[in-house]
Amino acid sequence: MRVFVMGGTGVIGRRLLPRLVDAGHEVTVSSRSRACFTELGAMGVQGVVMDALDADSVSAALQDASPEVVMHQATDLSKRDAQANARLRREGTRHLVDAAKTAGVRRIVAQSIAWAYEPGPTPADETTPLDDDLDPGRAVSVGGVRALESAVSEIAEHVVLRYGTLYGPGTWFAPDGPVADALAHGMLPADEAVSSFLQVEDAAAAAVQALEWAPGTYNIVDDEPAPASAWVPVLAGMWGAPVPSPGREGGGTWERGARNAKARAAGWVPLCPTWRSGFRTAMA
Ligand SMILES: NC(=O)c1ccc[n+]([C@@H]2O[C@H](COP(=O)([O-])OP(=O)(O)OC[C@H]3O[C@@H](n4cnc5c(N)ncnc54)[C@H](OP(=O)(O)O)[C@@H]3O)[C@@H](O)[C@H]2O)c1
């Protein structure tokens, strides 16, 4: 297939590209800079300069590549700026979908998150509504997710991948990342807020498989949603950081984790089915 990837140079994208090439796809990848083009060329991938916030550049890139499938793996998180990331989800996805429709794209696969669900006592599945009772900080993030998922759904064959919290080399959960830093400074509460994790290679593998999945929304998370009171001490032990006190009770009421039964039924088998072994395999 001719696959156009936006976000192919990011933490998931870098793992995704070799998988797409190995699977025999003809791949074009966008970047805002040519700096990565030599590396992309060596991988057998065609680079194109494009900024999702510039509608004309998106339109030109999609017309030129004429892909059958668009893969949206772009985030704007390297500066940990939630507003910038929400803008990319709103405006960048709008431009991408408009250009894809004009270029006759058949399918789109897009990255979303598995922690935008309304609060509840058990892990969410894909039928759980997104949260609409929001504090201002969460409204930014969930608003961006709603806009992204709504735009993507305008293409008949759309697959939304609601990823769990990524861990592994190059992510925030790497030993040299911001989570390790917060832990070292006693700023990571070991409370009852529940997270669903995802090893970054498993995120890339799901995206490749999603080229063949029935259209719809899929939680891409491991098998074991867990409260911070369970996983924070494990990380502290691995990284030689002080084990934090239990912290406030409850955690964010929306932090409930997610279930992956739908993705598993579609054939996705995570390499790291639980963070308990995955943290050590990927990050020790
Ligand atoms: N589910 C999760 O937990 C999750 C998901 C994603 C990221 N993260 C975290 O966020 C951190 C940063 O992610 P990252 O390293 O992938 O970097 P990033 O800054 O989020 O960039 C990711 C990708 O998006 C592309 N991109 C950004 N802005 C764009 C724009 N305006 N137009 C087109 N493409 C654009 C980038 O391409 P160019 O820069 O080449 O243009 C890059 O390929 C990671 O360490 C990870 O832990 C977490």
Q: How would the blueprint of this fold be written?
A:
Elements (H helix, E strand, L loop, with lengths): L1 E5 L6 H10 L3 E6 L5 H7 L2 E4 L5 H11 L3 E4 L9 H21 L4 E7 L22 H17 L4 E7 L1 E3 L10 H7 L9 E2 L1 E3 H10 L6 E5 L5 E2 H12 L21 H5 L9 H9 L1
Parallel strand pairs: 1-2, 1-4, 2-3, 4-5, 5-6, 6-10, 7-9
Antiparallel strand pairs: 8-11
Helix pairs in contact: 1-7, 3-4, 4-5, 8-10
The structure holds NADP nicotinamide-adenine-dinucleotide phosphate.
The site of NADP nicotinamide-adenine-dinucleotide phosphate (NAP) has 27 residues, from strand 2, helix 4 and strand 7.
Describe this structure in words.
With 284 residues, the chain is an alpha/beta fold. The strands form three sheets. The chain has a seven-stranded parallel β-sheet, with helices on both faces. Strands 7-9 form a two-stranded parallel ribbon. A two-stranded antiparallel ribbon has the order 8-11. It contains ten helices and eleven strands. The mean pLDDT is 95. Helices cover 38% and strands 17% of the residues. The termini are far apart. The structure holds NADP nicotinamide-adenine-dinucleotide phosphate (NAP). NADP nicotinamide-adenine-dinucleotide phosphate is lined by residues 6-11, 13, 30-32, 51-53, 74-78, 88, 92, 113, 163, 165-166, 170-172.
